Amino acid sequence: MYFYSLLATLYSLLLYDGCSALMPSSDASTRTLPTLHEFFAPGGVLARSPLPFEYRPGQLEMAKAVERALSERRHLIVEAGTGTGKTLAYLLPALRTGQRVIVSTGTKALQDQLFFRDVPFLETLLGELRVCYMKGRANYLCRRKLFALRDQPILSGLDEIDEYRQIAEWERITETGDRAELSALPESSALWHKLDARSDACLGSTCPDYRRCFITEMRRRALESDLIIVNHHLFFADTAVRLAAGNAPDAGVLPESAAVIFDEAHELEEVASQYFGRSLSNLRFEDLARDTDVLLRGQSSATQIPALTQQLRERARLFFAALPMPADGRHPFTNREDFLESSGDLYLAVRSTLRLIEAEMERLTDVDEARGLETRVASLRADLEFMLESTASNIVFWLERRISAAPGTNSAQRSAPRGSARSTFLQATPIDVSELLRTLVFEQIPTVVLTSATLTVQGSFEHIRRRLGLNETRELIVPSHFRYEKQALLYLPPSMPDPREPDFVEAAATTIERVLRITRGRAFCLFTSYTQMRALYERLLPVLDFPLLLHGTAPRKALLEEFRATPNSVLFGTSSFWQGVDVQGEALSCVIIDRLPFAVPSDPVVQARMRAIEESGGRPFFDYQVPEAVLTLKQGFGRLIRSLEDRGVLVLLDPRITRQRYGQIFLQSLPPYRITKTITDVEAFFAPKPA
What is residue 387's predicted lDDT score, i.e. its pLDDT? Predict the structure, then answer.
């Protein structure tokens, strides 16, 4: 399979991770942990903890299923409704195995929750645990880069000079090298990108700072841990590197493990598609040229390199400018042969320059920095050749142009079109990753546990199993601990036009305004597109008295903090606010969704997957688009009820859920909300209770 050859080039592209660890006590691995019943049952260890306790039968049921899967070396897929307490339901069985277990999450927010909240809580009940938290390599400082920049300073302006001084002083005292310790360093710092420990310029064991390297220390701590908390991106990066190295014992950064638990498993297909594909951009060429100039500056034997890197910049600029991009956004690249016919000389010129740089670096046998750069150039050339010449059948080739601010600009500048640059990407994405996941994950790892609050469609795991290639597995559905029929009301406004009709925006604005006046703000308005979000935000901004927050005007974390801290606020958001967001209490009392979240049918990856399903005799709309939209809608609605005390109203403005036959699939897949089409029921829901 062609993937096996392409994965060899991922080494220099993927972000390996560093970790910080909770160090073990001497008897941590031999201590007897309580049984599941002793821990979860009424009157048990959990009930005696300082936290408010309510016995959850589903939590204990899930914990037993996980423990059984681990002991019998079987796979398990669990949909655990919100409020089940699924995190503890898999953490304790994993710790009880006495073997190393990897826990992989879809978001950094859940990683932080596990390591900084759930694990310390367990330690108060069980004693010290051997747990390692692995972060992306780009979060860690590379001492070699720091020292090289000190000796050959190429800093842009006073801001970078000040940032360099901060980092240099911090390097002398930090034990982890984790950027998170530098609270004063701007999120948009361009200098950090020049100093981080990403692998594409890493010298490995030949580096003079190898023993003092923060990544070396991370690997040591990982080997000493029983539980390793990673994310899906790292997991698949590590899988790719191991495969490329023929599963050599020292390949990758994750130690061997008895099991892997994927939390937020609904994201696996998307993440795997990214890591088993390829990506090429003008930014990558510019980064290579810049890093080569910095790392080889002053080397007497590298006199030809500066001219070649400048040539690479110029030729890459011409190549990317010639790509057939009708507009910003994502577009199929189906006419690669025509492009080579008309602009093949530009492609050959870039490839030729990369080969010349490789040849020059091969001559630099006395320059350590050249080894990492040579690997990086070879990887870039291999990806370029693949993008233009590959005939792989299970791949969709596509183009993307994004508007991005120049490095070093602040968040306010990044949200403004003025001064922005357009970055162009050539992408190659697997159409179907099920076979890859089956052979590389489910057939290689003794026990894989997949869990999420959103894995089933109409009570069935068929869709997710088919997309992930999961054939042999046990299944479990654990209903939510919440009382949705009492805590939540789903309002489906009558007489709404189809979202594709021109009068939808006006009708949606009228309905949203009325609902928000009833709820007194305190809402998320979630949209499937930036265009729709901005249109409704601009219509409602002059007529609403509530504080309105708009996705894109500040970092996501800052917007959420402002939302929580600002009474009666309303947040307008798109995809990243549909999941991984936890706002408990009255601050979030309403979630409004504009339309059923079908994937954009013109998206090149969606197009290719639908075409593949049709060619195999399936029904693309019902076999792919509807199930994916169901899982996304469940995620969006899941933002509302986050605790037993939460109450609120859900609003879906899309009338297709009741008018179209497929709407029943959505309704039958949602929790048992009370449903109404009457606005007076919404008013009654928020009416003050009689004294």
Answer: 96
State the burial class of residue 175 (Cβ atoms within 10 Å of its Cβ: 0-12, 13-18, 19+).
Answer: exposed
Question: What tokens were used for 514?
Answer: 């009325």
Number of H helices, E strands in the chain: 29, 19
634 close to 457: Cβ distance less than 8 angstroms: no
Nearest to 504 by CA among 312, 654, 323, 628: 654
The tally of CA atoms less than 13 A away on the side-chain side of residue 495 is: 6
What digits encode the pLDDT tens for the residues 49-70?
988 888 899 999 999 999 999 9
User: How does pLDDT run across 672-685, given as a tens digit for each residue?
Assistant: 999 999 999 999 99
What's the CA gap between 103 and 497, in Å, rounded? 45
* Distance in angstroms (rounded) separating the CA atoms of residues 402 and 408: 17
Q: Where does the pLDDT of residue 691 fall: very low under 50, low under 70, confident under 90, or very high at 90 and above?
A: low
Homologous superfamily of 484-686 in CATH?
Answer: P-loop containing nucleotide triphosphate hydrolases (3.40.50.300)
Q: Residue 404: beta bridge partners?
A: 421
Query: What stretch of H or E contains 230?
Result: strand 227-231
CA dist., res. 288 & res. 290, Å (int): 5
Q: Write the DSSP symbol of residue 331.
A: E
CA 51 to centroid of chain Cα atoms: 30
With tokens 């710092």, the residue in question is: 189
Chain-centroid distance of CA 83 in Å reads 22
Query: If you ran DSSP here, which 8-state letter would residue 99 be given?
Result: S
Residue for token pair 């978001």 = 107
Single-letter code of the amino acid located at 106: G
**Which token pair is 614?**
């049709």
Whole-angstrom Cα distance, residue 521 to residue 99?
49
Give alpha helix (H) positions in 520-567. Answer: 530-540, 556-565
Per-residue pLDDT tens over the stretch 584-600: 999 999 999 999 999 99
Q: What is the pLDDT of residues 394-424, one digit of tens each?
A: 999 999 998 754 433 333 333 333 334 678 9
Q: Do domains 2-136+213-275+435-478 and 280-429 have the same CATH topology?
A: no
Map out the domains of the chain as residue ranges: 2-136+213-275+435-478, 141-196, 280-429, 484-686
Percent of the chain with pLDDT over 90: 64
With b for 16 or more beta-carbon neighbours within 10 A and e for fewer, the 622-636 pattern comes to ebbbbbbbbbbbbbb
- Between CA 134 and CA 222 the distance in angstroms is 8
CATH 1.10.275 fits 280-429, yes or no: yes
Q: Are 357 and 377 in contact (CB under 8 A)?
A: yes
Q: Which amino acid is at 193?
A: H
Question: 525: helix, coil or strand?
Answer: strand
Topology of the domain covering 2-136+213-275+435-478: Rossmann fold (3.40.50)
Which residue, 14, 262, 9, 222, is CA-closest to 137? 14
